[in-house]
Amino acid sequence: MAERNVLRVLKGATAFPPPIWMMRQAGRYLPEYRATRSKAGSFLDLCYNPELACEVTLQPIRRFGFDASILFSDILVVPHALGRDLRFDEGVGPRMTPITAQEIAGLDDDGFHVNLSPVYEAVRKIRSELPEKTTLLGFCGAPWTVATYMVAGRGTPDQAPTRLFGYRNPEALDELLNLLADLSADYLANQVDAGADAVQIFDSWSGVLDEAAFQRWCVRPVARLLARFRARHADVPVIGFPRGAGLAYNSYRQQTGVTALALDWTVPFAQAKQLQAVGAVQGNLDPLRLVAGGAALEEGVRAILETLGDGPLIFNLGHGITPDAPVEHVDQMIRLVRGAQR
Ligand code: CP3
Q1: Distance CA 334, CA 212 (A)
Q2: I need a surface site. Which of 57, 93, 170, 209 has the fewest CB within 10 A?
Q3: How many angstroms from the chain centroid is the CA of residue 186?
Q4: 70: closest CA among 83, 82, 59, 86?
Q5: What is the tens place of the pLDDT at every residue in 265-291?
Q6: How many domains is the chain partitioned into structurally?
Q7: What is the pLDDT of the chain when averaged over all its residues?
Q8: CA-to-CA distance for 249 and 243, rounded, in angstroms?
Q9: Which protein residues are within 6 Å of ligand 1, measured from CB?
Q10: Interior/surface letters 278-298, b for 16+ CB within 10 angstroms, e for the rest
Q11: Whose CA is nearest to atom 17 of ligand 1?
């Protein structure tokens, strides 16, 4: 069998038209997702049900024929498997009990991988049902991004609670980030053992830190995670997504050792080209162009293909698709990408 096209590009090959998938491609913009989601009960019930998680993972593949499929789960199952409470309130997002410095010292990873066994089972099931040519991506949250939810107990616009916590309790935050890095490395390695071809690390909140904090809380833990992951899977591509990292995207790849970079939509093309000279890039359509459709969508797609199409590119959004994106606009985007001529 020829190597799957997303994997080939992740390893540095150029393909035109480029392969395409979307962050959050299994989600509320799809009627079939909403139907399975209500059958499952809660969002977390869906994440821990291998049959239903497999079903929603496959829905966007069946409907759109994307080149890559991403495991359906959430980054917050990692703290949940560590014994932290977690719930998803309808319309408001994740809620956890904020962790204290004392509680960090007492975190116990006994049972961690047993708690996550439904995720591993979902990966095996997805791989057995996916088309042969479709790349399967596993994922986790980066230690900093996961820690922001553990410390604040919720999403915040600027992660002020966790930045303050880190300035006041630097040793405790380092300890938490190190634990998350080691457990996440094993979690990703187990996903690969179960059938994932490559993995993505979501560092959604890396854009709120000053230079020293970015180094200590983002780069250092992700480098630690990569080193431990590489000891088990030296050649499996890793996509890093330090959303909002701006100029620091360059040093993030160099210092963490990720294979490829997912670019948010604010990364200028001149910088994206420089990054692409070193390895594959993925992105970076503004998800709101997909909501708007029409000329806004056409211009956005064309600009990406024209500037990045002659190097290793995986077409994607610059962040997850939003629930209000019309399915017809997704169809239109795929037609624009797959019908492109050089
Ligand atoms: O991309 C995919 O299709 C795979 C599944 C996936 C989900 N979450 C499903 C989900 C992935 C890769 C994630 C990652 C994730 N989860 C991140 C990093 C990426 C990013 O978007 O920045 C973060 C920060 C989370 C935490 C999280 N989960 C939040 C803040 C929310 C609420 C926001 C919202 O959109 O409601 C979730 C819930 C969530 N995770 C949903 C889905 C499909 C919606 C919940 C629902 O169906 O009710």
Answers
A1: 40
A2: 93
A3: 17
A4: 59
A5: 999 999 999 999 999 999 999 999 999
A6: 1
A7: 97
A8: 9
A9: 23-28, 37, 43, 70, 72, 74-76, 88, 93-94, 139, 141, 155, 202, 204, 320
A10: ebbbbbbbbbbbbbebeeebe
A11: 75
Provide mean pLDDT across the span 127-142. Answer: 98
- Is the pLDDT at 89 greater than 90? The verdict is no
Report pLDDT for 342.
84
Token digits of residue 245: 């990292």
Residue 206 belongs to domain spanning: 5-338
β 68-70/238-242 pair status: unpaired
| Residue keyed to tokens 């989601």 | 37
Mean pLDDT of 314-335: 98
Q: CATH no. for residue 317?
A: 3.20.20.210
| 44-47 long-range contacts, CB within 8 A, separation 24+ | 44/74, 44/77, 44/80, 44/86, 44/87, 44/88, 46/72, 47/72, 47/73, 47/74, 47/77, 47/118, 47/119
The secondary structure of residue 138, as a DSSP letter, is: E
Q: What is the pTM of this model?
A: 0.97
